[in-house]
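Repro:
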Amino acid sequence: MDIKRSTKSTANMLINFLTFEAVKTIGEQLQETDKLKALWFNQFSTRERLQNGELYIKDLFAVNQEMAFRVMTVREYLANEILEFLPEMTRTGIQQSNMQLRRQHFEHIMSVQASEGYAECENLDSELDTGVDEKSNLESNLEVNLEHPLEADVDSGVDGDRATTQQNQ
């Protein structure tokens, strides 16, 4: 991981964002004080490259030096006000977000495992029910065999069982 490159990229993104915030603030101020200038500023800002704060200000200098200085002044003011709190807010925000995402993931895993466990329990119950039914059938067959050993032997139709039964008698 290249921390230096990531830091530069983050700083540039923040500069561009603060430029955008400055333009938005100035647009709101102009809307209250000078509607004609607000209209021009809004049209310029939507036409030009506001995604890149540096290019935006360079282009603004070319057409209206006063507004370019105003954007730079407001951007600097916002940076001074915001950047003091930004590191701690960012760390705290990421920690809280990570904790919530982990909790949601854990809850999801647990609900999936619980539903799979529930399905396994249902399968086990049906197997147990089947096993109980088979056990009941075996017990009733055994009782019939014990009560009427010769009849059960004839009814079974299995030669090996018949031979075994006859040998036992």
